[in-house]
Write a structure and sequence with these properties.
single chain; 97 residues; alpha+beta; Arc Repressor Mutant, subunit A; 3-stranded antiparallel beta sheet; 4 helices; 19% strand
Length: 97
Amino acid sequence: MSHAAQCDVLLKALTQRAMTATEIFQELGIYRASARVHDLRNAGHVIHSTEVMVRNRDGQLCRVARYSAPTSQKLLIPQLPGRSRYSHRPGKKESSQ
């Protein structure tokens, strides 16, 4: 399956429910979940990651990320460094008028 196809499948699954990388691998067959999440974020999709504690096969607690996509909506303005210089902020002359 191509990276683009994996991204499409993953986005659809994450809009339905939150998933960890292990769940993504087991249910969707996507080995590198974090890489596909990175691709989706770069494409402008909102993907949340929450740190959760799970037990590994030895019974030890481990921290992993649980990914979710609250909506299928894309960001219109990506979160990039230096973005604030493009936002309109009224100066002293404009705010007094």
